[in-house]
Amino acid sequence: MAPEPHAYIKKHLLSTKSLPVSEVWLSELLSTQRPGTTPLPALTQTALFRLLASDFTRSLEIPVSNARHVLATDISNPSIKERRISGPVPVQILDIEDIGSSVWSQVEAIERIERGESIRGREIIRTVPQAVQVEEGNSPTHTTGESARQLTPSASSGQGPHRLILQDCRGTKVVAIELKSLGAIKLGETAIGTKLLITNAIVARGMVLLDPECVTVLGGKIEGLDRQWKTGRKTRLLSALNPPETTS
Fold it and tell me: Where are the stretches annotated Disordered (predicted)?
């Protein structure tokens, strides 16, 4: 007898990804699918894809008894010298900042993209979108390997370390610092809403210290939040350069 889709998907996502899916969210998802005709593995993959593209505060179940799977409500308390997040705690990224690069260099990187420029070594290269090349009757130029990476525009001017704002399914937020490079976290590539699993991480003075041993990057994004974050990033950086004057 084939397993019931709802129970199977819920159990599978919890056991393989440590994601406690909300009953309501999963029921709404399955109501838009065809559980009777769609193979269960395909249905499970669809559920995972939609889950990683969702807001965890709506799609995950808040544990009633097991507090290991959520952040402590006082996680950001700076008076607590050190504690650990046992986890695994699923969280989503709400903000990312490259604290290894100056604010001005990040503004310049954004403006280069706006002008259609990229940097290769000490040279500034004018990049022409492929669509424009086709319209002008030119064959698109294909680059591979290191050349392709050098010519790819990026809004990031450095490689970190990064400062993140994370949020769990209960809505609790915390600041996290990349103590060692996570590799998969890159400004200009990592989307807002990217999902992480935090396990056995140290929290020092209200700040989570991240390294590859305590973080699993699940991927995903929240489309609306990511678009809004990208649109307002240059304004936020310029505001940091020119903070409003305070009157005494």
Answer: 135-161
Confidence band for 241, pLDDT divided at 50, 70 and 90: confident
What value, to the nearest 5°, has the Cα angle with vertex 131 and ends 130 and 136?
95
> Distance (Å, rounded) from C-alpha 48 to C-alpha 39?
15
Q: SS3 of 216, please?
A: strand
Q: What is the DSSP letter of 46?
A: H
pTM given for the model: 0.79
Q: CA geometry: angle at 232 spanning 226 and 237, to 5°?
A: 120
Q: What are phi and psi of 121, to 5 degrees?
A: 65, -120
Peptide bond connecting 161 to the previous residue in cis, omega within 30 degrees of 0: yes
Distance CA 230, CA 188 (A): 9
Residues 75-113 pLDDT 10s: 999 999 999 999 899 999 999 988 887 777 777 777 777
Tokens, residue 40: 């269960």
Cα distance between residue 102 and residue 175, in whole Å: 19
For residue range 26-72, list pLDDT tens digits in order.
999 998 888 778 888 999 999 999 999 999 999 999 987 778 889 99
Token pair of 167, please? 């949020």
Task: Give first-to-last CA distance, the chain, whole Å.
Answer: 75
